Batch of 3 targets.
Target 1
Amino acid sequence: MLAYVLLWMVLWAMVGGVMTPRIYARKDLDVANTGLAGALMGAALGPFGLALLWWRSPKLTGRWLATPGVLAVLLFAAAFARTYPGNLCVSNGSFVVTQVVNGLILGLIYGLMALGLTLIFSILGVVSFSHGEFYMIGGMLVYYMSVVWLPGLNPLVALVGAALITFLIGVVFERLFLRVMNTGQVERPGEYAILVTFGLAFFLQYLTLALVGATPKKAPRFLDYPRLDWPSPENPWLLRMRAGTVEFLDTVSIATPRVTAALIAMVMLLILMWFLYRTWIGKALRAVSEDRQAAAVTGINPDTMNTLAFGMGTMLAGLSGASLVQVFSWVPWVGTLASARAFVIIVLGGMGSLPGAFVGGLIVGLVEALGAGCIPDPQRAAAYIPAYGMVILTLVLLLKPTGLFGREL
Amino acid sequence: MKRRLVLWGGAALGILLLVVAPFTFLHQAYLVHIGIVALFYAILASSWSLLAGYAGQFSFGHMAFMAIGAYTTGLIGKFVRLASAPTGTCTEFPLGGWYLVLQNATGPNCLERGMAQMPPGSLIVQPPILVGILAGTLLGGIFGWLIGVLVLRLRRTYLALFTIGFSEILRVAINAEIDITDGPNGLELDPLFPNGLTLFGRYFEPTDKLPPYFVMLGLFVVSMWLMSWLASSRFGLFIRAIREDQEAAAALGVHVVRYKVLVFVVTSMIAAAAGAVQAHYIGVITPNILLILQMSLVISMAVIGGLESLVGAAIGAILLEFALEFLRRSFTIGTLTVDMTTWRLVFFGILLMLTLRFQRNGLIHPLLERITRAEALRETVAKRQAPAEV
């Protein structure tokens, strides 16, 4: 049944996506977002929704996009529940909640990393293809500092060290290789930036592989949580905390390293928001992203801001890697998947949009967690995890290249 | 006129060198093997330079088209058979007096069950390798057309992201669909000449390296000829115009959509053909050829050779492939063992970044320009000096 419903949805989404812009164009109306609205409407309500859309052809506000979007997701969920009544995602509520919370926690950290990428894009106009490598280096540095070089070092100190080092690498790279983009020393700077950051990714990944080898590393958890039962030790229905897991309401059980990572990400987000909106340098950064020349006129040096933004971007990637090294095992090529995910997030959220990166991160985290948990054939589901994000990326690029919060092109 | 002579002479000399090379002191199986791989990368790097350097379409999905070619011919070899009588158990289509049989991927093999019911003496044959390679090339072209149409609206970064996405989805799907593609273990393919080959009275084993070398060399020469012809024709002019300024090109009457799609189709067909031949030569194809590393190698070769020069990219690929192979040897300084299998790639990355930063036109391309334009340079200098003497 699910297959038929999917076929129906995809078919009408394609009809809607292709035909709606033409009908709007024929009626001499604004065609912005028509492809997306048509596709969503077709997926949610089939021919009826499309008939309504084409007959009335309303001005496409956010409501005309959100309502069919939600309806389409609900329709899919209902069909899924009917087809697989025994699936854990349908029959077991606490499993779903656990997956959702885990997805949101990871999404928060992915969002932090994507925030770095979007910061770089909004100021340099460059998508750094080496972002994932900084994520990997951040994790490696924490592992080496707290386990190999200085055993017993508090991992949180190592975290700060990793942030500083990734910041410095970013700054040096920007000064050596990206500064020339604005001085007219390279032709076609946009393409130069793609290739040179790609080259950096290649270099960093193999340098790390040559230095540390291919065996997976796993840092011990940063914090051991105290044993805590609440409201009472006999009946801890609200909260049961152990060194390795935290359980809320007897249903949601989360590994503590993930909680620590989420806390670090939240603190970093707050610091970043404070920095960008309350300090002079932060305001200068945002000014450069709005209008480079106007900012230069008011006495902000755009080149310095470029360097700073690139360093901060790489530092955010390093930090998210550093906080996840206690959750996942770490190999020199973890960055490839992470950078792919960061691309998905910033395209979904809208290139250069800070809230977009955050919301996009949460969505991608959710989709990955639910996708991995719910798809009936678990082995195949696990194998397809890297593809979910890429499917989102492809769809967004085709239907709405500006993303959720992006400026119109 | 002189320049044209130099170009043709250079091309003839280069081909002659490549033809004669395996019969000279270089006649060792290992060296011929590297030669085949180098030619394979040369085809990929030069077709990528046509796509990225000439047309300005920075696609990171070139290896995906290569893999489509390779997997198509591999899957045809694994699943498609021609039978002289209907099996009754498989999916099959009549084809002339024969039947095109598709075997099933899961469950008991339908062909083996069907053979029991077939009339005695009926034949089951595998389609020839050439058919698989042609089908792979064709499918590569179809996917190139599809991707070309989908990315029409996307530029630069968006295009790069989209093509990475396409390549990754393909890699993950091949990895996951183990029943069909054999997943990470890799799909096994027949050699290019499964029954060996007799040429000029000499018999070559199926594992002999010389026939695949000449097949790859032939493909290389044909694709280089095709691409140079395209690049020097109106097509090349138009795609360079689109690269420089799409709107201006369209305003001057260039059919932007047609040429953008066409360049995708041509380059992906060439990549797919190279992939199909290479897969048959190696004998196994794994999803790892879709890793970003492989794409980085092709990009580095094209950039170091010369992004906007087909011949430069090809020579760069051949030189770098040999360099990579000879740098494989690890060595020891005192107690420290340097594992060159990884470090050579580190140096490669540094070389790529430095080339991009300081030698935008690559390392090989300016040398070629010097040679082919030496005469023009002398003439210009002579012309400039002539009035001074008067």
Note: The beta strands of chain A are 228-230, 239-241, 245-248, 252-255.
Target 2
Amino acid sequence: MKNIKILAVLAVAFVAFNCSDDDNDIMQPDPVDFSGTYAQKDQMGRPAVNTVFVSSDSKDMFNVTVPSAQNTAFQSMFQTNLTGLSPAFANDGDTNALGQDAATFTGLLATDVLNVSLDGTTTFYDGTNVLTGRALADDVITVELLLIFGGEDFSENPGLSDDHVDANDKPFLASFPYLASPW
Amino acid sequence: MKKVRNVIGIAIVAIAGFFMVAADHIDAPDVQGGTSDITDFYAFQGANTDNMVFVANVQGLLSPSATGAAAFDENVLIEFNIDNTGDNVEDLVIQAIPRDGKMYFFGPVAPSSTGLNSTIQINATAGGVVDITPYNANEIIATNGGMTFFAGPRDDPFFMDFAQYSEIIAGNATSFNDPGADTFAGTNVMSVIVEVPKSMIGGSGTINTWVEAKRK
């Protein structure tokens, strides 16, 4: 029995050190089966895009359409849903505070990727930087509500353009893993 | 307001039987509430500004009492996609796949094929492995090759007054409340977090990035 334990410990040690003692740092996960093909079920770039802009009967399809094909497949649906949804886009020439009309705004959103700067501030929107990432503390829902309902100067439909929940229920951490411990 | 109700109402009726839907929580019939349901995706500069952090959350709306039993699905691959050439096609992926209490990371690495079907890039020169942190344990963090890794339950970082949003859509309210109430307060998610040197994903400029859940 003791020998078996020692062997088991050695085996674990071998596996554990396998990733670091290799001179070219190639993972050697031989004991673990990583075979097979994994087929897409869900995807996400920007927050709430599928939820808000994709019609209910197209939500699964949106999740299995590669981003490079999403604009062609979905921009028109996004624009229809936006102009139907928001009085701030009800009239020709209406724009959001970024100066985007319905076609431009939905043309951006329909390709559901998160644009991220490698050169500095990363934020969904902080008043200065626009779509340079998504930080944990970004109030992305209010930003999206403002861009959908707030009109040219964020002043339209004030009851709909801010949910007045501005921060998380637990403080984030200043260092990795950044997210707060679970409740 | 009528238009608002009509359009959102149509979208919501189909999912009215489910409690909530938000950032990407429970976003579509095929994945809602399951182990491949992505709830959220974040990408931000690390505390070390030479690094970028990617966060994928799955299995939203876990109550504290349900969190201890929550587990990553060994048949579900979490894949961070990075396009650094501006065509919205992934040039690099970081794959995360759980096996026997550990989360294995492969990449950043050019995928053998782009698109809807993936194989795990076991020959990737970058990557690492971290023990999945159990509920109520101190977080277990691993590093390898300049990258840092975490997998396990965390507080859901998403916040929104989704309940009032639903009331507006249902026609029971005409505006949000001030202050609002965070519908996601007190709930957890299963998080996969990886911090990677920017030099490994393009160095400078803008990347386009998204996360996918893929099932074997």
Note: Residues 1-20 of chain B have pLDDT under 50 and may be disordered.
Target 3
Amino acid sequence: MAIEVLKERYSSRIREVVLGATPEQGGTRTHTITIGGDSTLPFLHFEGEVPHRPVVAVEVLDRVPEWSPTLTKYYEDVLDDPAAWAKKAVEQYAADLIYLKLQSADPELGDSSPEQCARTVKDVLGAVGVPLIVVGSGNEEKDNQVLPAVAEAAAGENLLLGIATQDNYKTLTAACMVHKHNIIAQSPIDINICKQLNILISEMNLPLDRIVIDTSIGALGYGIEYSYSIMERTRLGGLTGDKMLGMPVFCNVGYEVGRTKEFNAGVAEFPGWGPQEERGIVWEAMTATALLQAGGHIVVMRHPEAIKLVKKNIDAMMQKNGF
Amino acid sequence: MSRCRVTFLPDNRTLEVEEGLDLLRVAAMAGIELKSSCGGEGTCGRCAVAIKEGRALVGQGNLSRKNREAGYVLACRTLVQGDLVVEIPAASRMAEHQVLLEKIEKKEILAEVEKDPLEKYGLEPFSRKLTVELTEPTIYENASDLSRLVLGLQALTGTEGITISLAAARTLPEVLRQGNWQVTVTMVEQDGRGEIIQVEPGRATKPSYGLAIDIGTTTVVVLLVDTSTGLTIDRAGTHNKQFRFGDDVITRIIYATEESGGQQELQRAVLDTINELVDRLLVKNGLTPGDVHSVVTAGNTTMAHLFLGIWPGYIRLEPYIPAAAVFPVVRGKDLGLHVHPEALVLTYPAVASYVGGDIVSGALVVDIANSEELTLFIDIGTNGEMVLGNKDLLVSAACSAGPAFEGGGISCGMRATPGAIQRLEIDPRLEVKLDTIGGEKPMGICGTGLVDSLAKLREAGVIDRTGKFQPGLDGARRREGNDGPEFVLSWSQESGIGKDVVITEADVKNVIRAKGAIFAGIRSLLQTVEMPVEAIERIYIAGGFGNFLNLRDTVEIGMLPDVPAERYSFVGNTSVKGARVALLSQRAFREALELARKMTYLELSLGTTFMDEFTLALFLPHTDLELFPSVQK
């Protein structure tokens, strides 16, 4: 029986954002990564173009994290050395990008100076050739000192810097403007605020193709359906011509999954739940693949086995299905 | 209970009251109106007074530290314990409302348009005087005085079934003979039936007068109208005395229904307000209450209930049902109005609990029900009510904009009275130029000024599109206040209240919510008829803003649709205009009844449309910048 495939045609496409810069472009990366550019919903190759595959960024901290041992055992030898950690993530776990969180800048967690943080970023840049995502500690006041210093020290590298929020976007936007970086604009699962923040940032004259949006996510079982629905609405808005919604989407999966009970509880606590590590891997991989279906472009991940599964899934989803 | 003597300064007004009364009440008894947005709950902090001499029991309330340190107490929380001398600072006093007459001629400022809707209906007033000549009775032609008069009137007017009031009947025999069978009759008409309510010998010198009254939540306006010519002889306006029971209808309904005697107090307050205005008009024009024979009032549904003494309790409670939407016609004596005891008192019909007679009145004035063009009528006030439609359909809704545009809930907010900042300029060095009503020293900000402030603060970069004050700005005017960031519009040495006039971040967010509610209401109405914003061909703006509106600013902050300026008209107080038309044309009043019946009411609290639209509108001008093409830079 012949099947007629209904195809939707959208008036617009998601913006492309280029991360990293090679020596010819003024940076030191071995290659750049382009995300976005889709003219259809995720992976619907028969309907439109999906020019760039989604990418996996691997999370690296600048201090020893309080993570579950089922995770830290893979990074045991490098946990106190962000550069070595990043190198291992790229070489052994096939990270497309490194997501470096400058957690030690938090006044409660080490209070590293802006200069120290900038040095860490330089070290990581020296250790790997992939483009970098760098985010602050989450302490707004401190981040407003740290991130401009990082932006300056890494001028030319075309980093992806975060996190800008509706209450605190000016300093980071200005730093990205001056030193030519990209920005992560985060909104609290609210499509209106997502759009408003993009307007606010672009009105400071940062071009729209330098903005990556983080619509905020929940892990599987922790409100993922809300994230899914907002991401889908954002994508549909972007495809139907709303230029303030048509940005690639950033999903901080590792962090969200890393704080679920399913990831951290031992077998003794919940015998019926199966082995802890396997459970955690599946949880992280499921969350990431679901969000890729919703329209994620960058997923930040932690567990090497979960990364493997997600990359395999991306390979499969990027196969054109020949309709 | 012992009696205490309380003297208020600087009025130097003294009265004796019972011990234990609060000063807010005592001041009201002395005829001094204090500001009180919360209705004497001790939460708004506006009724600050100073005890100069004597003993009082001072209770806790929300009084600013500055005022407390300056020795002020809250009048509503202070109970009389003995003889007292109390000083009332200007800032706590309710300003005398003045009907603004000045017209400001500036580009893109909408001046009120004057077009008399009465032309369409023709003069057919509810009360009129008729002079008739009767033949003297004889022993052969011995019909009663009344039959003689009724026959004469029927021949003159064609009106059937004319009756007479008892009071008029009692005077009839003497008056007829005194006038030598020429009399002037005052007749009121209702549903095609006439009633004689007064007879005067001979030809009367004065016509029958009528009153058109707008009973607003905030202000009351009375027009004195000559029903024989349709001319408005005089007008007077003041704030509604119900103000001391709260700013908005909800607070007042709560007071009316939960305080013992509350409903009576509120009715008394509005009747007092009206009677004072009527007295003022009568004295000024050499008239007496007996000269006024018809009254038409227009007000929102709650005001109509309170005015007539009808229980308003269910208006506030889900599913928001008013006791009546069409109100009984009563007589002046039923309410104790300072008019002829038998004068007809008509009340404009309402559509629903939150779309009242004032809106029906406005819709009649702008003649939306006969319009070919898709027309939007908005009354911008505490309850942004709106009607969208044309000759084929009419949808109405009320969005709770809050009292911000009338100065409520704003730290230096005030109504459009002298001293209110109505326009301002902020230059790049953050220096400010102000324009106040009456050119007086700035005392606060009115609705127009608030709209202007938002537009100008945003242009100057003091606030961003979310209304957040931006850090890192130089200038003494941008500072941290007790309630967060604020901007000084007028320094204390230049202001009329002895302290700085400021606008705070909280004020800005308040105005954004108010304007957001109005725009969301418009979009919700448009969605029910599935039309885009551009489809609106005419927009009439009424109320709330004194006598003018800066259209550019209003569109720039995203309160009103970004359509060509020529589609807008500012129609001022349409509530009182509609009351006047109905007073002078029975046909217009019948049409108003029909109009109220035809209007579909859209309950915005149902479904998610309004809330979705509201969140989209909490941005300057709007999250969808495409809706405001002329504002985009």
Note: The interface with chain B takes residues 166-167, 170, 190, 192, 195-196, 199-200, 203, 244 of chain A (CB under 8 Å).
